[in-house]
TrEMBL record:
Homodimer. It is an enzyme of class 3 (hydrolase). It comes from Herpetosiphon aurantiacus (strain ATCC 23779 / DSM 785 / 114-95). Residues 196-301 form the Glycoside hydrolase family 2 immunoglobulin-like beta-sandwich domain. It catalyses: Hydrolysis of terminal, non-reducing beta-D-mannose residues in beta-D-mannosides. The lineage of its organism: Bacteria, Bacillati, Chloroflexota, Chloroflexia, Herpetosiphonales. Pfam families: Glyco_hydro_2, Glyco_hydro_2_N2, Ig_mannosidase, Mannosidase_ig. This is Beta-mannosidase B. GO terms for biological process: carbohydrate metabolic process; glycoprotein catabolic process. Residues 753-802 form the Beta-mannosidase Ig-fold domain. Belongs to the glycosyl hydrolase 2 family. Beta-mannosidase B subfamily. Keywords: Glycoprotein, Glycosidase, Hydrolase, Secreted. Pathway: Glycan metabolism; N-glycan degradation. It is found in: Secreted.
Length: 823
């Protein structure tokens, strides 16, 4: 089969409602070049018809784009040989209310941006010039019409009409992103020439309980079978050796063949083993001519979601076990990396996901208000050993469940599960984000009711509890399905079962972040604290006269309802800072880092060993941003890492240390996340703020594998203005550190801790201080890759980090109250 990518010579224009579509398409007025795949915003920005929506307050000036209709057209030439073949147009994604014509003949209507469409056009194409025309009607107006017909539904974030459309929900605006209702062919458009094709290829892998064998169950579906059509199935092991080959004639269009592999090479999450993958190739041929072919990269792994009673407390676990190893799933939530997703390069994806790996994150949750990500995203997760929790695209709303909507959702689910099911990184399909939570808030959720959900005030249960699990069972039977996030059965806020979103800090009661450990769940799939994007990122979109914390533009770039006020409360409770944008950025980022570290540290402490895995995962909201903004992200839209990603990395490291002050006493623990016990030396020290040593103690301790280990610590009569530190040494090497400081930090005096930085070979640095130093943040003008940052320093305990690409660049250093100490 020949596939011609139609991505050149596309044009777009605003639709003239005074003309018919076909008449409007022949007009020479108003057309601009348009990237495909792409959206109308990209075309308008490139043609300088609109300003950059991310800059300043420009978002407000471009809302008209969503209120009008748009036309796209593409002219392409076909030879006689091409035009005389069976042909079909394949649209990987049309955003969203679209009608398509080829050479003046209407061929398709589409209203779901997540459903690929394939239309046979053999009788519509011809030799020479052909024209493809697509009308994209205003999704905003279409949604409003449906809402007027069927009623307004309950929603958090964005225009409520979004619930009636199968369109990325974050396009309507969210509490971290602007409202930009895109339109256009957002995924590739392809002309397929040739009839016989491999229309589906599946290979679920059954793994023995002890992982000693794996059965590859290959199913191939061939459309438009010719005489003597055959299929060749080949399987290569991770070393590149052909280990199985099978050929047979295609009779009824379907081929099934099983391959058993003994002692398979397993796919592991990073840190636990290699990411081995097998290569499956299937070719369709006739008369020694290959008609179509596909390849899949497959990983062999045994995944269990273990929900078993705990030994010493109520409820049950919610833990992921991979290849029979229980794993604490620390990680992050993922949102689309741009409002205009075609601008996200493969390198952009790699840098974000590599940063997650470098921070010892094990799991990424793809949030249900965005998009099903591009293939490259999942390929990277497979390669890097990141587990993926995949939401279906429903978020924060009381979705409808009328027949047409259900049919569209089913087509969407089938298409996306078929596309993604072969990725070993995907370990969970999840029905939605917070839809059970909003239903419970509206008193619309009765867990005990199991009748006709479509007749209740929470009709979308038909989607989450019947339609989606049925699709997953049919098309991806080896992957777990979970109804929603959060979900625990009768109560979405239950701390003892299922997964939980912990927004008691920041939202809800605005609890102190130090109390994060109290608001646990068996798996905390969302929690977070806001902070500013990096200063250069903010400066790139804020005009010079608006560069202060309370400016209109700065607050416009914080989409959280009451976000500036909430941030001010937490800052007031925690820190003091000068009223400059530079100080504000550092203060918010330091506070975010402290808050998230407290959460991960406290919850990972509850990883207590077999029968006592009381908290089995924590996914921060959120890893990344889609524009320059003050948000919960730990990497901003310019890929600048915030300090929090380093504090999280230390808490999720294979071995991590924890300290907690309780008056004059100290509680200490060490998490050994490896699968082997470790003989360790635990060093406890105490210093006053002048750098005087108050106490020192060494403890020899055997750290049990894959659990938190309480460390006996002395009862100390500590002065209020003192700092306690802990170092964990294995084979004489420091593998983890922790420090406990008096809080709130705003009461600590401002002083110069006398920090020194020694440059060593290969961009290594040794950092030390004469006095305890909190939140030491190293920056350079040019971007470099720090192995660690945002350090807490104690006297006589130098720390070594690598700064790849540093060279002789000057280093700017900030620390707690640096702005007061320097004035």
């Amino acid at each position: 089969m020949q596939k011609l990518a139609l991505q050149q010579a596309w044009q777009a224009k605003q639709r003239d409602p005074q003309r018919t579509v076909l008449a409007d398409s022949t007009s020479s007025e108003g057309w601009i070049a348009a990237p495909v795949p792409g959206t109308i915003y990209e075309a308008l920005i490139a043609a300088e018809r609109i300003p950059d929506p991310f800059d300043g307050l420009n978002e407000l000036a471009v809302q008209w784009v969503a209120e009008v209709d748009w036309l796209y057209r593409c002219d392409f030439e076909l030879t006689a040989e091409q035009a005389n073949q069976p042909a079909a147009l394949h649209f990987a994604g049309l955003d969203t209310i679209a009608t398509v014509w080829i050479n003046g003949q209407e061929i398709l209507n589409s209203d779901n941006m997540f459903v690929p469409q394939r239309v046979v056009v053999s009788n519509q194409i011809h030799v020479g010039a052909n024209q493809l025309l697509i009308e994209f009607r205003s999704a905003l107006k279409h949604g409003h019409a449906l809402q007027a017909e069927m009623g307004q539904l309950g929603v958090w974030n964005g225009d409520p009409s979004r619930l009636y459309l199968r369109k990325a929900q974050y396009h309507y605006g969210w509490d971290w992103g602007p409202a930009l209702l895109t339109a256009g062919p957002w995924l590739p458009v392809t002309l397929e020439l040739g009839a016989t094709r491999l229309s589906d290829l599946a290979c679920p892998i059954s793994v023995a309980d002890d992982c000693s064998t794996a059965i590859f169950a290959v199913t191939a579906t061939v459309a438009d079978v010719q005489a003597d059509t055959a299929v060749l199935i080949q399987l290569w092991n991770p070393a590149g050796e052909l280990i199985a080959e099978h050929q047979q004639l295609v009779v009824a269009g379907n081929i099934q063949h099983s391959i058993t592999v003994d002692q398979p090479s397993l796919w592991w999450p990073h840190g636990y083993g290699q990411q081995h993958r097998y290569r499956l190739a299937v070719k369709v041929f006739a008369n020694q001519t290959v008609l179509d072919q596909q390849e899949l990269q497959l990983g062999v792994r045994r995944v269990r979601l273990v929900q078993e009673p705990l030994l010493d407390e109520a409820g049950e676990t919610f833990l992921f076990e991979i290849n029979n190893v229980p794993m604490f799933s620390g990680g992050a939530n993922w949102i689309p990396a741009d409002l205009l997703t075609n601008r996200v390069s493969n390198e952009h994806y790699r840098r974000l996901l590599q940063a997650a790996v470098d921070s010892h994150m094990l799991m990424i949750r793809i949030w249900g208000g965005g998009i099903y990500e591009v293939d490259h995203f999942y390929d990277l997760c497979d390669q890097l050993g990141l587990l993926v929790w995949q939401d279906f695209m429903f978020a924060c709303g009381m979705y409808p469940a009328h027949p047409a909507f259900l049919a569209s959702v089913e087509a969407e689910a089938i298409a996306q599960v078929q596309r993604l099911r072969h990725h070993p990184s995907i370990v969970l399909w999840c029905g939605n984000n917070e839809d059970y939570q909003i239903a419970q808030t509206f008193n619309a959720y009765d867990h005990s009711f199991q009748g006709d959900f479509t007749k209740t005030s929470f009709p979308a249960r038909e989607i989450y509890e019947r339609l989606l699990p049925k699709v997953c069972a049919s098309y991806d039977p080896t992957t777990i399905y979970w109804p929603g996030s959060p979900y625990g059965g009768a109560d979405v806020y239950d701390k003892t079962r299922g997964d939980r979103h912990t927004w008691d800090v920041w939202h809800s009661a605005m609890a102190p972040y130090q109390d994060y450990p109290k608001y646990e769940g068996r798996f905390v799939s969302e929690f977070g604290m806001e902070s500013c994007a990096a200063l250069p990122t903010l400066l790139s979109v804020i005009p010079e006269h608006e560069r202060y914390p309370q400016s209109r533009t700065v607050e416009h770039h914080n989409k959280s309802e009451g976000g500036a006020r909430r941030l001010a409360v937490y800052l007031n409770d925690t820190l003091r800072f000068e009223n400059t944008l530079e100080s504000y950025v550092y203060a918010t980022q330091l506070m975010q880092a402290e808050a998230l570290a407290a959460a991960y540290r406290g919850w990972r402490r509850r990883w207590g060993g077999a029968g006592r895995y009381a908290v089995a995962g924590a996914l921060v909201w959120q890893l990344n941003d889609c524009w320059p903004v003050i948000s919960w992200a730990i990497i901003d839209s310019a890929l600048r890492k915030k300090p929090a990603i380093y504090s999280i990395g230390r808490e999720l490291a294979p071995i991590s240390a924890g300290l907690q002050r309780n008056g004059a006493t100290i509680e200490a623990w060490v998490v050994n996340g490896t699968i082997e016990s470790k003989s360790a030396t635990i060093q406890l020290t105490g210093y006053d703020l002048h750098g005087r040593l108050l106490f020192e103690q060494n403890i020899e301790y055997e750290l049990a594998a894959n659990q938190a280990n309480p460390i006996p610590s002395p009862n100390l009569n500590l002065p209020e203005q003192s700092v306690v530190g802990m170092q964990v040494l294995v084979d004489g090497v420091v593998v983890a550190r922790a420090s406990a400081w008096p809080e709130p930090f705003k009461y600590l005096p401002a002083y110069d801790p006398q920090i020194s930085v020694t440059r060593m070979a290969d961009d290594w640095l040794e950092i030390s201080s004469q006095h305890p130093a909190k939140g030491v943040w190293l920056q350079t003008e040019a971007e470099i890759n720090w192995s660690d940052n945002l350090l807490d320093l104690l006297p006589n305990q130098p720390q070594r980090i690598q700064a790849c690409g540093l060279g002789q660049q000057p280093i700017d250093i900030k620390w707690l109250h640096w702005d007061q100490a320097r004035t």
